[in-house]
UniProtKB/TrEMBL annotation:
Residues 1-53 are annotated as: Disordered. It comes from Streptomyces pseudovenezuelae. It comes from the Bacteria. This is Calcium-binding protein. Residues 14-34 have a biased composition (Low complexity).
């Protein structure tokens, strides 16, 4: 007795599969989260990544962050801005730190942006 299979030999073979890996940078993540809702921002701090308008999203004052979020995020970037146009000339002051940092946001600043930092707490 002969038992066999019939079929197309080209379709019976296993096809190799591929794996796709996507990596997002802190800047890409921040850009996706750059539109905070004024109703969700606590009056005593800045919750995380984003660009916040001074006077409507956040209050002027001195804020402190304990540093980078951790894990793959090893630096904490912040900038005080004279405009929200996204141009480099709008940066009043900025820093990229690896530890605790403090910044004073003036009432004359238009906005404050932060990427990769732990929540900012208002200290003054």
């Amino acid at each position: 007795m002969l038992i066999g299979l019939t079929g197309n030999p080209n379709t019976d073979k296993a096809s190799p599969s591929s794996t796709v890996t996507t990596t997002a940078t802190a800047t890409q993540i921040a850009a996706a989260n750059s539109q905070p809702s004024a109703g969700k921002v606590p009056s005593d701090g800045i919750p995380g990544d984003g660009t916040y308008v001074v006077g409507s999203d956040i209050k002027p004052g001195t804020y402190r962050s304990e540093g980078p979020q951790g894990g793959l995020v090893t630096s904490c970037y912040w900038a005080r801005l004279s405009s929200t146009s996204g141009e480099a000339k709008d940066i009043i002051a900025n820093d990229d730190t690896s530890g605790q940092t403090t910044v004073t946001i003036a009432a004359t600043d238009k906005a404050f942006t932060t990427t990769g930092c732990k929540a900012w707490k208002k200290t003054g």
